[in-house]
Every structure is written in C-alpha cells, then in structure tokens.
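Researcher: Here's the sequence for the chain we discussed earlier.
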Amino acid sequence: MTLNVGVIGAGSLGTAISQIISENVEQLLLHVRKQDLCDDINNTNYNSQYYPNHKLNENIKATTDINDLSVCDIIFLAIPSSAFRDTLKNLKAVIGNDTILVTTAKGIEYPSLNTMGDLISEYFDENYVALSGPNFASEIMLNQPTITNIASRKQENCEKVKSVLSTKTFKVKIIDDIKGIELCGVLKNINAIANGICEGMNINENARYGILTKGFKDTIKIIEAFGGSFDTAHEYCGFGDLILTSTSSESRNHTLGILYGQRLIIDEAASGIVFEGKNSIRAVKDICENNKINSDIVNFVYDVIIERTAPIKAFNILWSKIE
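Model: Thanks. This is the structure I predict for it:
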C-alpha cells in the first residue's frame, strides 16, 4: 500500500524525520513556514538553516501552503507544543478524521494541562499516534542507529506509521500505552533540567546520579497515577530518553538546567531556542498538586526555574528529602 505522508515543521527533527520517511514513500511533503527556506529546499535540496551540509533526498518537496497536505494519509507534527493548537485549527479545514496525525512534541499546554494528544482529540479524534524515544535529530539525520516507541488507541494506525518510519537503522517499537508515552516525553525534560541544575552547581556525581534515580522513581509514580503503565517507564521512551536527555551535552533542557545552576538566565525569545521542559514545568506542578502527588524533583525544578530560588538553597531542600 502506497501512503501519502506529510511533515509539518522543517526544524531539526522535522527535517530528519522527513529524510527517514522519504526512503519509504514516493514523495514526502514538508510544510515550511518561510518561503525563502521552502525555495531553498526545493531548488537545492538543502535545509540551509538546520542542515547546511547534508543533502536531502530529492523526493522531499517543501511547501508553505497547508492545503497541499489535504492528500496526506499520515501527517507528522514536528512542531513545538506552543504551536500545536494553532496548527490544528488550520489543519481542521484541510483534512478529515481519516488522516493519521502523529505527534512528536513533548510538552503540555498551559494552563489547560492538555497533552498534545488531548489537543488532537479536541479537533479530530482520539486515534492519533504518539512518537517518543531517545532520539536526537542530528543522529537521525546522519542515519545512525536509532530506536523509538510509538503508541495509539488504534493498532492499525501504529502499523501504518511504523511502515513509513522503519529503515535498517531506524527501529520502531509499538507499545500499548498512549497516556504513558506522552507523559514520559514530558517528564524526561524535567529530569534533564534537574540534573543540569546540579551539574551547573558542580554537585558531585554520587549525588547527581542519586537524584537521577529519584527522578526516575517519581516519573513512574506520576505515570501510574494517570493510568499509564509501569512498563512504559522502562521502555525506550521512558528510561532510555530520560537518561539520554539528562546526561547528554546535546540536550537542550540539560543545558538549560546547567545555565540556571550557574545563575545564568537565557533569553529564549532572543535566542529562538525552544525549551519544552521550561514550558511544561508549570503544568506538571499543577498536575501533581491537583492529584495530590508529591514529586521532590518536580518541586526542585519548579523552585529554581519558576520561583527563581537560589539553586543551592533548592538543592539543600531536595537533598534533605532524599532517602
């Protein structure tokens, strides 16, 4: 079966996913916001903004017209959570419920506390697919070995998405926990910030990995409280992504934590860098309070990032509760 596939978002991940999918389809439609970048991709086969040294496959066609995606059977949403609702509103007039929507965003809308899947269900139906795993876009783009999880309430949708994503180097494992996979994607960013803060403060490694263990336990507690599965926390989207994002220098949220640990505040608007973890911390804090869940790691990150508590003070409070 030949499937028409589109990707919304020509950033690092959207472009990398497009490159992978283009190996399995006749043509890949890549929706781009800026006309000059669209022309660049179509005329030169290079995304000059994100991958100026890596040629894109020739069957990737860029477009700025969202109406072009009306022919797609599957659309990947490779955009920040902050852009999700507006994008879905625009898509509503273009596609029907038969189109499979795949979310790659790892965030929660605030103050609604909706996951990206909740937003898709609000505008379309609940049979979306969520993708999450220990996946750096730069490594996907280089065609290096990578594995990810996908989940949906409809198995058939997962099978179709897996068929267009899977290559010799890009592995896809289906799991049966749509709620858990989305929560893992959110909570791993908070753990990454927590460990970054500690690294920025030059906290010793014994303590940092103790806190990482505590963060993993808190992740399981929150997932199970929301009807997710214990097993999901031990999947690639859970343990794998949490460790990758919490320890790698390529992780944006780990870097954000380091800066806060050093008492340096980054201007996101000026830099153009999106930190999904920072956008999610208020939401996760509210979710925990609304459901009477206590997470020392969530409280620690909230105090440093939102309340601007001195990192050493927040750490001392956290460490006093570790047992």
